[in-house]
């Protein structure tokens, strides 16, 4: 009897579900888009219940495809999902959302992050590996909800990430059953002891967050419940399938591209592009103010990693296609743009794109997205290459931090949607002066979820070996010295422009945006 495993990835732009067989081969998959709302400048909200609906739609599509192929859905052994580590929603006692879901794209807590950072506390870096509060951290979203959400003040019981929210509904869990795996726990940014995998009472008191609002900590492969009759009918699956606690998207994507050992690196080229390096624990030289790195615990036991982020990486690509090109939802248009951009020389004819579409951070908190240096010759192809280069320029800063700390970067594996662009992969290889590879078997987080689901029910004995044995390189991109030097020169000029020369301009532009908001 063939065994099957269902995994889903609840990302920022979609919920993708897939079913894999015992050889971890995909036999059915489906993706359902999600919606983002922008109620105020710097605010980005989503609907947690729409996440559940999207997951149900994707799962049901997979079960229907299995039936079309004559494959028995009753042989699905377990369900495992991953979600965004930098985002939470507030729920009532029944486990239902009573606040918007807020994630890393939202910057409403910038002032709170600055106020907490001004305290100059060492406990953040010592216990979490993160030296400074960041407006992307769920810990700060929780503080905002506690202070500003009347619904949560009246009926709030727990804060949940999006994957646990979906999994809880599939299993019929209430707030009292709330859970979080040890990797996603580290997505909170503050409020926990990362190496002990527990909440930190001392930090929580500083943050003024009651432990009562926080879920219990579990292992990713723990079974937290079973598929209810209600959701069995909605998904087309049989009731009673074991449901795992799940994991964080970044953690699963890293495993999926082979980053399971110290000094291995990955570019998780999704909505928020993440550049990750595996380590064996907190490194003081990387956990210091100014590095702009975030530290997390991995899915596998005793694994850790740092990552630098480009907040609007993949989202900037989608924004350009939808809002600038008017090709909303047309995935093939990415390929059209990229093919045209191949004819544009490195440097995009001098055009620069600043990818701060959801606001800046740190020293450039007032920054906004914009194109600079355009002429009458500037067209879509030039602008598209400028967008690709802009995101890659931000990778240079992360690479410099790693190398300054003595980390050897010789190879970077690119995964998720961005890995499909040969042009972008070559740009990154040139800019980062590093070998870039993609994988034949890369399925991102969803494939990893299926393997973890199999491990959860005892069908895979060695999870790490299962991941590593399933990886084969697809393409290799080698840096060109001339383009490396050229891009480095542009990067240095761009960095000075953004961090020094444009500060006053960003402040003025922020005032203009505020004035425009008042006219709505």
Main pleated sheet: 7 strands, mixed
Strand content: 15-25%
- What class would the helix/strand composition place it in? alpha+beta
The poorly predicted ranges are: none
State the end-to-end CA separation.
61 Å
Q: Identify the overall geometry.
A: globular
Residue share in helices?
25-40%
The total strand number stands at 24
Number of helices: 18
> What's the overall average pLDDT, rounded?
93
Tell me the radius of gyration: 22 Å
Order of strands in the sheet with most strands: 18-19-17-16-22-23-24
InterPro entries: ATPase_NBD, Carb_kinase_FGGY, FGGY_C, FGGY_Carb_Kinase, FGGY_N
Domain Carbohydrate kinase FGGY C-terminal: 268-456
Pfam family, one: FGGY_C
Protein name: FGGY-family carbohydrate kinase
Give a short overview.
39% of the residues lie in helices and 20% in strands. The chain is an alpha+beta fold and 520 residues long.
Topology at a glance:
Layout: E1 4-10, E2 14-21, E3 26-33, E4 45-46, H1 48-68, E5 76-83, E6 87-91, E7 101-103, H2 110-117, H3 123-128, H4 138-148, H5 150-155, E8 158-160, H6 162-171, E9 179-181, H7 182-185, E10 192-193, E11 198-199, H8 201-207, E12 216-218, E13 223-226, H9 229-235, E14 242-244, E15 247-248, H10 249-256, E16 265-268, E17 273-279, E18 294-297, E19 304-310, H11 313-324, H12 332-341, E20 352-354, E21 370-372, H13 380-404, E22 411-415, H14 422-432, E23 435-439, H15 444-456, H16 463-468, E24 473-477, H17 481-501, H18 503-518
Parallel strand pairs: 1-5, 5-15, 9-12, 16-22, 22-23
Antiparallel strand pairs: 1-2, 2-3, 4-7, 6-7, 6-8, 10-11, 13-14, 16-17, 17-19, 18-19, 20-21, 23-24
Keywords: Kinase, Transferase
Domain Carbohydrate kinase FGGY N-terminal: 4-256
Organism: Anaerotignum lactatifermentans
